């Protein structure tokens, strides 16, 4: 049976935006993240992380660190009974210095490659799915994937709302204070 998904950006949406997370000690969950994921779990939405991690291509940290950060994130969330269904990330950047990751790709947001991969692995009800993120590129991703996008004020959100959104062709269906408020909005306003 198809289930709707919420595709969630990582840095600035689930955890504090600190530039590149180049050490496990720099990973800090934002308040309400656990409750937001639990709410998605309870209402049978797939909770799927989609994240650009170009620090790998740029040589700032090895790809293994991204995996360790994701293991830590899942462990912190699972302590509060919040389950992430899948994590997809793009390690590429066209201006990288690590040859195997220095490329143009379809998975770097706002490209839809990460969502396309999720659709191959899960039976997703795209009509009732969402993207939640702190950048206009997350809203562009939603537009390209033909789903609804919610912009949060955490991370880069406030700056994008004030300075980029007014000039963007991409509009969120909602602007939320944070991930928890975005998920609560989906439950109250956005559900079919």
Coarse morphology? globular
Contiguous low-pLDDT stretches (5 residues minimum) are none
Task: Figure out the total of helices.
Answer: 6
Number of structurally distinct domains: 1
**Second CATH tier, the architecture:** 3-Layer(aba) Sandwich
Round the Cα radius of gyration to an integer and report it.
Answer: 16 Å
N-C termini distance? 16 Å
Describe the structure in your own words.
With 192 residues, this protein is α/β, with parallel strands linked by helices. It has one domain (5-190): 3-Layer(aba) Sandwich (Rossmann fold), CATH 3.40.50.1000. It has 6 helices and 6 strands; from the N terminus they run βαβαβαβαβαβα. Strands 3-2-1-4-5-6 form a 6-stranded parallel beta sheet, sandwiched between helices. α2 links the parallel β2 and β3 (86-90). α1 (33-42) packs parallel to α6. The longest helix has 16 residues, at 63-78. The model has no long low-confidence stretch (mean pLDDT 97).
């Amino acid at each position: 049976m198809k289930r709707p998904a919420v595709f969630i950006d990582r840095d600035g949406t689930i955890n504090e935006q600190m530039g590149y997370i180049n050490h496990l000690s720099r990973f800090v969950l934002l308040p309400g993240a656990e409750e937001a994921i639990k709410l998605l779990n309870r209402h049978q939405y797939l909770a799927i992380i989609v994240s650009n991690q170009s620090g790998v291509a740029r040589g700032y940290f090895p790809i293994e660190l991204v995996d360790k950060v994701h293991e830590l994130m899942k462990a912190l969330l699972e302590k509060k009974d919040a389950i992430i269904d899948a994590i997809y990330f793009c390690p590429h950047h066209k201006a990288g210095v690590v040859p195997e990751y220095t490329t143009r790709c379809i998975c770097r947001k706002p490209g839809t490659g990460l969502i396309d991969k999720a659709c191959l692995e899960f039976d997703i009800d795209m009509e009732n799915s969402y993207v939640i993120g702190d950048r206009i590129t997350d809203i562009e991703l939603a537009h390209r994937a033909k789903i609804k996008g919610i912009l949060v004020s955490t991370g880069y959100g406030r700056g994008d709302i004030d300075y980029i959104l007014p000039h963007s062709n991409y509009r969120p269906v909602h602007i939320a204070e944070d991930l928890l408020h975005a998920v609560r909005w989906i439950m109250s306003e956005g559900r079919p």
